[in-house]
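Why do we care about 3D structure at all? Because function follows from shape, and shape follows, mostly, from sequence. That is the central idea of this module. The next example makes it concrete: a single protein chain, its amino acid sequence, and then its structure expressed as tokens.
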Amino acid sequence: QVQLVESGGGLVQPGGSLRLSCAASGSISSPYTMNWYRQAPGKQREWVAAIGSGGIAIYTDTVKGRFFFSRDNAKNTGFLQMNSLKVEDTAVYYCNVRNPIASINAWGQGTLVTVSP
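And the structure:
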């Protein structure tokens, strides 16, 4: 079993920044991909960003240049730095860890990010 704990959500004004963390524990097996998804009120969950064990990150177009995903492999922790936040970034953000070979597909409980004037 893999457990994920997200933290760092909160209320911020437009243009502000937040840093989300995702700490993985349990039977985590490298290599694995870490993802962030988000779900806004009344909308489907959408993929935001991913990072592989090598540290290369990719992003959905709406957050490119504003969000930056990094990870500390020694601590099995990922960090999503979110800058220039917009009202439309408001959502519950979920961390996901995936390793198909080891049949790992774990989700965190989510952390709420609210961007409001």
